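Risk register update: the risk of archive-format incompatibility is retired. Evidence:
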Amino acid sequence: MARPWRVAIIGGGITGLAAAVRLRDRAPAGTEITVYEQSGRLGGKLRTGELAGGPVEFGAESFLLRDPAGAASGAVDLVRRLGLAERIVHPTVGQAALVISGGLRPVPGGTLVGVPGDLAKVAAVARPAAAADRDEGRPLLGPDDDIAVGALVRARLGDQVVDRLVDPMLGGVYAGRADDLSLVATMPALARTARAEHTLVGAVRAAQAAAPRAPGAPVFGTLVGGLSTLIDAAATQSGATIRRNAAVRELHRTPTGWRLTVGPTRLPDGAAPPRAGAEPSTVEADAVVLAVPARPAARLLADAVPAAAAAVGGLDYASVALVTMALPEPELPGLSGLLVPATEGLLIKAATFFTTKWGHLRRPDGLALVRASVGRYGDEAALQLTDDDLVGTVHRELSKALGTPLPAPVDRHVQRWGGALPQYPPGHLGRVATARAELRAAHPTLALAGAGYDGVGIPVCVRSGETAAEEIITALGGSAA
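Archived output:
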């Protein structure tokens, strides 16, 4: 009898755990799945904590409910698979605001990540250079072209649309700049229609028409009890062996599969040495899913697949800090939150009013949970501030933006996410395709998955992990059908 398959998943975030669940569902019975997580905690950027006696997200807050085609998103499908569907809740307040010239203005409707399909709807926030968006008799993009979002929108609609709308919206998702980020990677629907349409407004309208949404239908959801419940359920139902504090340091090809060198997570200088028996060891696997950021993946790929390592290893990441405060009965507007353009000169780039946005988090004691995001790509000096200074600055800037002094917090938490958000330059998806082509040709039992390759957001990461699992099953001679 053939021995069971052995599959190693490097990375215990939502991508790696989604891969583990898919392997458990579709790989042959008895398949041995091991997840290696270098930290002591599963979930990556999904982390539910506690503040002032109640749950609060210290990482990702919610997930999209629909995919671009209008079907249930990867996150919703996984939630259902794990038996958590009854926990899904939707925002009770959806309107957000932009900080413009020191005041609040509602985020206009009818845009695609800030790019307007109706110029009149954004006039209160930005003055589009409408005359520049003329039909020049050809599509905006060629069949294989990519371009920075900012370059396209500035050329067609002017600087204010970028600086006051597109940049803060992209910054809220990527902590990056519109002038640096790939259109194809960050706004694929618009990139597709830009290959046919002759104007940017026309491309936005075509993209919106291709993915219609029922009026009033919720866009986002989260889980009662927090998103860590998704992580816990995935880890349990995958049946995988979970190895925490297990850093995979080397990955080498063998005649029958892969050899991993696994050791304890490296400690900072001056920290106590690892306990006896925690020295690095080697383990064998038939297949490997690399569900880690691009640079760690490139280091592991350097020996076996140097061309793939070179293709993905240059991707940069932004660092951010999330400052959450529990405020006693503050005067907050009836908004889900706000976005702050970089041109406003503030440290904060976004804020979420949790207990306004999410009805299930509202508290009878009047405490409001407010979270602000700090840190833009290329401007991370602010992240060197101490926790106390960050909280003080956020409190002061939010008070200024809201036009009313906020009460002193009764509790607060600072979560620092170093190297958290990938910064996709133009051509990113082409480089990822090159890396994966190298792997499929030479080493089909090694797969890349995660935000560093396919996009940010829980649904995309889930689908990325599931796709990697299916590729592994096929490569090992099974069927993922």
